[in-house]
Design goal:
By secondary structure, this protein is mainly beta. It is 9% helix and 33% strand. Bound molecules: the ligand Nc1nc2c(c(=O)[nH]1)N[C@H]1C(S)=C(S)[C@@H](COP(=O)(O)O)O[C@H]1N2 and molybdenum atom. Ligand MTE binds next to strand 7.
């Protein structure tokens, strides 16, 4: 089911809304997935591929593929699935589940989950550990919903110069959804966190293919984990999560990069000391300085785990199918978002950064962790090539600027420039 484009806006605090997904529906979903397993249809495309009023633009050599529960998405790798959302899907406030990007580290991903036997374990440095079925989570805890952006640390990595290794994402390793589930804080209250707790770890059902590899486990500080925002979600845009986006449960860490949003979440463990696992100590680290920047000649010696998202904005219209005409008004359109302070301003330049004008921000309010969509009417005086740029300012006063570089290609948020041909 597609999320309607003009649905009534809701404040994150207006929720919960009703979440009446029947058990039958769940079981049906699980059964379908088990039977179908995760085989994909894959097609090779040339420069352009028309679809649903938008266009999938892929670099030479990339493919599009249709995985279970998904539309055709840009495929970086098939094992593990790494699928990118085409830009035209960002002309809606909420990214449809079918088009939401996918990223797993290991090929050993769950392809079916039996909700009769599945349990989420919550334990470790606590008074009384529990195991809960999805049904018990739904019944025993207050449901909460929040609209939040889930963005891969390496979103837009392919544009870094010099180029860096890792998934060569365009701008489509991001999505905005309404997540519904229970507060992690409520779960932790139920098990009774013991004093001196330091961190909480999260692990999913996916397994590394080799003994020598480390299971994907992430950690949050106890203060963060017991805050109001962090959820264990069982729904995405009012539906059970797609298998590829973490069915039946995933962690939702609003404002923080997607690496913390552990999918097919099965184990939550409270630790009395800081977690020292590979995915916190070795991977997903950024230079410890203001802009997480370093140079190839001078790599940062001090690093910290990646954390809150920085402010950024991108243009989603014109796309390659749109024709912009001299002397005719054209509505430029895009999205902006940050790590949770909200978007206060978006400015647009059509002359390569010489002059800037304020874009209109949509007045729909999905809360501070959501995409903010913007528009600006533009009547080019002449034909030719125009350099269109966009610059967002966040609620806490941060402004997009020059692009910084780091060896992992994380946190790209410099002002982007696109060249628009005007006829
Ligand atoms: N269990 C599990 N959760 C995971 C990952 C993973 O490999 N395994 N990858 C993380 C990373 S790096 C990203 S970008 C997001 C992607 O979320 P999505 O596939 O729902 O878009 O999932 C995160 N959660
Ligand atoms: Mo990621």
């Amino acid at each position: 089911m597609r999320t309607p484009q003009n649905e009534t806006p809701k404040q994150a605090t207006d929720l919960p809304e009703s979440i009446d997904v029947s058990r039958r529906k769940f079981l049906l979903l699980a059964a379908t997935l088990a039977a179908g397993s995760l085989t994909s249809a894959c097609s090779r495309v040339r420069q352009e591929d028309y679809q649903k009023g938008g266009i999938i633009q892929v670099k030479e050599g990339l493919s599009v593929a249709r995985f279970p529960e998904k539309e055709e998405l840009i495929m970086l790798t098939d094992r593990p699935p790494q699928l990118e959302t085409p830009l035209f899907y960002y002309r809606q406030d909420l990214t449809p589940n079918e088009a939401f990007f996918v990223r797993w580290h290991f090929s050993g991903i769950p392809t079916s989950v039996d909700l009769q036997t599945f349990k989420l374990e919550v334990g470790g440095h606590v008074q009384k550990p529990v195991s809960l079925s999805v049904e018990e989570l739904r019944r025993q805890f207050e449901p909460v919903s929040i609209v939040a952006v889930n963005q891969c640390s390496g979103n837009s990595r392919s544009y870094f110069a010099p180029q860096v290794p890792g998934g060569q994402w365009g701008h489509g390793a991001v999505g905005n959804a309404r997540w519904t589930g229970v507060r992690l804080k409520d779960l932790l209250n139920k098990v009774g966190v013991k004093s001196q707790a330091a961190q909480v770890t999260f692990a999913g059902l996916d397994e590394p293919p080799l003994y020598s590899m480390h299971k994907f486990v992430k950690a949050l500080d106890i203060d963060h984990a017991t805050g109001d925002d962090v959820l264990v979600a069982y729904e995405m845009n009012g539906e059970p999560l797609p298998m590829l986006n973490g069915f039946p449960l995933r962690l939702v860490v609003p404002g923080w990069y997607a690496t913390y949003w552990v999918k097919s979440l099965a184990k939550i463990e409270v630790l009395a000391s800081k977690f020292d696992g590979f995915w916190m100590e070795k991977a997903y680290r950024i230079p410890k300085n203001e802009n997480a920047s370093e140079t190839p000649e001078n790599l940062a010696k001090d690093t910290v785990p990646i954390n809150r998202m920085n402010v950024r904005s991108i243009v989603v219209r014109p796309d390659v199918t749109d024709v912009v005409r001299a002397g005719k008004s054209f509505e430029l359109e895009g999205i902006a978002f940050d790590g949770g302070s909200g978007i206060s301003k978006v400015e647009v330049s059509v002359d390569g950064g010489t002059t800037w004008s304020a874009a209109r921000l949509d007045d729909t309010d999905y809360g501070k962790f959501s995409f903010k969509r913007w528009r600006m009417s533009w009547t080019p005086a002449s034909s030719g090539k125009f350099k269109v740029m966009t610059r967002a300012t966040s609620g806490d006063g941060r402004v997009q600027g020059a692009q910084f570089w780091n060896k992992s290609g994380y946190m790209r948020n410099g002002i982007e420039q696109i060249e628009v041909p005007v006829v």
